[in-house]
Amino acid sequence: MLTNVLRNFRALPFAILLIVATALPVLAGPFEDAVGKFANDEFSDTEEAVGAIATSGNPLAYPIISALQDGRLMADPETKKVFVTQTDGKIIDAATGTPVASIPDSAAAVRLNNRLRRAVEAALGGLTLLSPDPAKRIQAAQSVFKTHDEALLPVVDGALQKETNKGAKLAFSEARAAILLFKADATDAEKLEAIATIKARGDQEALALLTGLSGDQSPAIARAAANATSAIQSNLALWSMVQNAWYGLSLGSVLLLAAIGLAITFGVMGVINMAHGEMVMIGAYVTFVVQEVIRTSYPGWFDYSLLMAVPLAFIVAGAIGILIERTIIRFLYGRPLETLLATWGLSLVLQQAVRTMFGPTNREVGSPSWMSGAFELGQITITYNRLWILCFTMAVFAILLAMLRYTSLGLEMRAVTQNRRMAASMGIATSRVDALTFGLGSGIAGIAGVALSQIDNVSPNLGQSYIIDSFMVVVFGGVGNLWGTLVGAFTLGIANKFLEPVAGAVLGKIAILVLIILFIQKRPRGLFALKGRAVEA
Amino acid sequence: MRHVLTRSLDRSATVFLLVVAAVGILIPLSNLLLPDGSLFQVPTYLVSLFGKYVCYAILALSIDLIWGYCGILSLGHGAFFALGGYAMGMYLMRQIGSRGVYGNSVLPDFMVFLNYPKLPWYWHGFDMFWFAALMVLLVPGLLAFCFGWLAFRSRVTGVYLSIITQAMTYALLLAFFRNDFGFGGNNGLTDFKDILGFNVQAESTRAALFALSCLALLVGFLLCRAVVTSKLGKVLIAIRDAESRTRFLGYRVESYKLFVFTLSACMAGVAGALYVPQVGIINPGEFAPGNSIEAVIWVAVGGRGTLIGAALGAVVVNYAKTVFTSGPLAPYWLFMLGALFILVTLLLPKGIVGTFHAWWEPWKAQRLSANSESAAREDGVSEPKMAE
User: Fold this and answer.
1) Where are the alpha helices (DSSP H) in A270-366?
2) φ, ψ of residue B281 in degrees (nearest 5)
3) What residues in A contact B335, CB-CB < 8 Å?
4) Residue B228 and residue B219: Cα distance in Å, rounded?
5) Would you say A264 and A433 are in contact if contact means Cβ atoms under 8 Å apart?
6) Which of A87, A78, A82, A86 is nearest to A103 (CA)?
7) Which of A84, A350, A482, B297 reaches 20 to 30 Å from A295, CA-CA?
8) Site from B64, B160, B294 to mutate, A interface, most A CB atoms within 10 angstroms
């Protein structure tokens, strides 16, 4: 009980001073008086001055006290003037903040002893706790949570009472709980409450705090701490599942984006396009070129660079795709293995061409402002670029699905997929459909390149790293059905991310490859295989 | 035996055998017997280079056996090649003994470096040559058997099979890059000293290895000829051309495929085993999917389904690679290689040898029929027409 009273008593002057300081910021009288005390060269006066300045809310408080800590605070006992030598070498009058040409010879650095040094440190920590910027307050409270420095308890208490920002209030109460938990003379009731607060926070740091608790606690507290620890652990395990699922979705969306064009060309034409990865790479380089042009000519439009790159990449990659179909693949129909070899050769040529034009090194592709940054959802961090790529993938998928369903080209493509000869007999110009399909598949790969340029290195080898994964998705998902590709991509993505923490990144990937090879035994034509006569065509 | 030989050797096969045998004898002899700097002396570095080509030719032969005669396009044959190479590399590593940098008589250098407490179990036995030689055949053969058994039984064909063979070699690539996998990580196995007690760097050893590679090529070629000219070979070709029909005729397609796939993998393993001591290093890069596809293009260039063409293609393409990648034309090599893939598949689908045959055969047939016509006129008897 006594400690409680004491604590309140100690907090009282701070609270009052805070109210005064916030209510009357224009009255600088007490502040100037406090600054003047430095000149007395008495430790007790200096301590009073530090306390008063720290709680004054004056913008000069931080520079003065940090100067005191570094020995840059000079006081002149004769004129009672105090000066601060700023870190950039300029000198200001501590009381008014006005610049001063030089410090008088009679001035000397204000001295500190160990007791004072602690007070100064606490005051500095407290000053950021009282910063007018809520984000800084939260940050300061977080660091207090980690260090749980007892000396800061009064400041935290004071800040908590006056705080109006919801996030900062939570941070302060958590910081307070952390301090109380480690405070030797806190009551059991306080500690239990503190444990409850920390348990509610429930993250890795809360766990570290609880496990760092010394063993000599009363049984009730030890039990509560153990319960809280296990609760946080299971909570964290759940969140890490959510995190893995999110990473899996993110990887799945990338795979889907890379594989979807491949699925179309493979499904409709039975052609394995080994140069598909290079179409992705070309899309990424289109993004690079668009950004270069914008950077040099229209810097203000940078945020729209990706929006411009998407149609351009589609057109460029699609045009190259149609060109390839008309000049090479057209002559190889019915010989899928030869097509595979020819497109592999093509991929070598395209890679080398890009290497000759843009150099072998990685090219810098920037992110527009709306794609950078991240936000927190529970215990996981979600970056905007991954989120946008997921949304973008789903949009592309939906558009493609609608196109296949509702346009005449889509109808023709489906007809050719199901039965090429019958489609031709019904008057569908299959060779035109082939060319357009190949163009469409390549164009979508180009779009994928725009998105992948945001999360991967834009280099001539960009496509190579996706081609095997894309094949796996198509083979796993089955041919002739875009839903198969969707399911395949997300299954592989999520499975990969769930295996990674268990087996490590490389072994996880190997395991996935082996599983696919085994899966193919069970369903030789993928999850969603075409049925009927078309199969043996 | 005599029957098999006569059946499997037509005139071009005999010529090929004689050429390989001549090369296998003359090059080592000229390297060893003639004085350095003589016009006809083949320098040692060229002997090793040619040895490499011969190993590639064996690999190409093994690919042609399954692709050209059975229609199985494996994009992962480099994996069998590399596995054979690793088996030989492990033997060579064990032969270093205490002459390594760390002087450990049991553990190879990289294991000492990576703090292995003792030799992993799968390294035991590789200090004996016969065991390593057995493994050269057994490891790729076993992998191919398991892989093929799973794949062919469930009728994975065409591009699907190609893709999963590629996935197989890619998975192995990733695995062998790992340090804790026990095969030296990305540095692979190197710094070899002896093979069967002979110094691998010595001229005579290099010449002997070259001669051995030629011998292996000869044996491999004879084996392939024996297979493809037998009744089994006829079934293989039937599978290539109409798999379902062959199955309906009552042949167990998967057994035929499995046999030829496993045989081919063993050949690739031997090629890899001969390759490693001549090149002096084996690393996971050999598993790269690109290597396997490149090997397929050798076969396509030479002519698939001709065997001789496969060997020829491997030598021609690799010679071109050596010429191009070492000179000022190096940046253009990938253009060349890529163009080779495209042009060969588009314009030269039968490859060099196949196209040559296509020109040669009609001419020969014309000459033959001209001969027989004149003979018939002399006899006054017309030959009966063949039934359609």
Assistant:
1) 276-297, 305-327, 336-358
2) -155, 150
3) 348-349, 352-353
4) 14
5) no
6) A82
7) A350
8) B160
CA–CA dist A148, A207 (Å, integer): 14
Is beta strand A374-377 parallel, antiparallel or unpaired with respect to A380-383? antiparallel
Distance CA A315, CA B93 (A): 54
**From CA B203, how far away is CA B30, in angstroms rounded?**
12
CA distance A355 to A350: 8
**Residue in the structure block whose two tokens are 């099979």:** B161
Tokens of A258: 């890379």
Q: What CA–CA distance (Å, rounded) separates B388 from B285?
A: 54
Question: Can you say whether the dihedral through the CA atoms of A325, A330, A334, A336 is positive or negative?
Answer: negative
Taking alpha carbons only, the member of A210, A207, A204, A212 closest to residue A192 is A210
If you measure CA to CA, which chain A residue comes closest to B173?
A510
Closest residue to B334, CB basis, from A351, A475, A506: A351
Query: What pLDDT was estimated at residue A392?
Result: 93
- Residue whose tokens read 């910021």: A25
Q: Tokens 């491997």 belong to which residue?
A: B314
Sign of CA dihedral B146, B150, B152, B156: negative
CB A228 within 8 A of CB A195: yes
- Three-state DSSP at A123 gives helix
| Interchain CB distance below 8 Å, A471 and B167 | yes
Pick from A219, A156, A224: nearest CA to A194:
A224
Q: Are B30 and B42 in contact (CB under 8 A)?
A: yes
Which candidate, A40, A44, A97, places its Cα nearest to that of A67? A97
pLDDT tens per residue across all 537 residues of chain A: 444 544 444 444 444 444 444 444 444 467 777 787 887 777 888 888 887 777 666 777 777 887 888 888 888 877 778 888 877 777 888 878 788 877 777 788 888 888 888 777 777 777 777 777 777 778 777 777 877 777 777 777 877 787 778 888 888 888 888 888 887 777 778 888 888 888 888 777 788 878 777 777 778 888 888 888 888 888 888 888 888 889 899 889 989 988 988 888 887 777 788 899 999 999 999 999 999 999 888 888 888 888 899 999 999 999 999 999 999 988 888 788 888 889 999 999 999 999 999 988 888 888 888 888 888 877 788 888 889 999 999 999 999 999 989 999 999 988 888 888 888 999 999 889 989 999 999 999 999 999 989 888 899 888 888 888 888 888 888 776 788 889 999 999 999 888 888 887 788 888 888 888 888 777 777 777 766 554 444
Considering only CB atoms, A524 lies closest to which of B160, B332, B345, namely B160
Structure token pair of residue A88:
């950039």
**Average pLDDT over all residues of chain B:** 88
- Give which of A520, A522, A527, A533 to mutate to test B binding, by max B Cβ within 10 Å: A520
Is A517 within 8 Å of B162 when comparing Cβ atoms?
no
The tens digit of pLDDT for each residue in B332-386 reads: 888 988 998 899 888 888 888 888 888 888 888 888 887 776 665 655 444 444 4
Chain B residues close to A346, C-beta within 8 Å: 338, 341-342
**Maximum pairwise Cα distance, chain A:** 109
Distance from the Cα of A343 to chain B's closest Cα (Å) equals 7
Put residue A148 in one of left, alpha, beta given phi > 0 → left and psi -120 to 50 → alpha.
Answer: left
No. of helices (H) and no. of strands (E), chain B: 15, 4
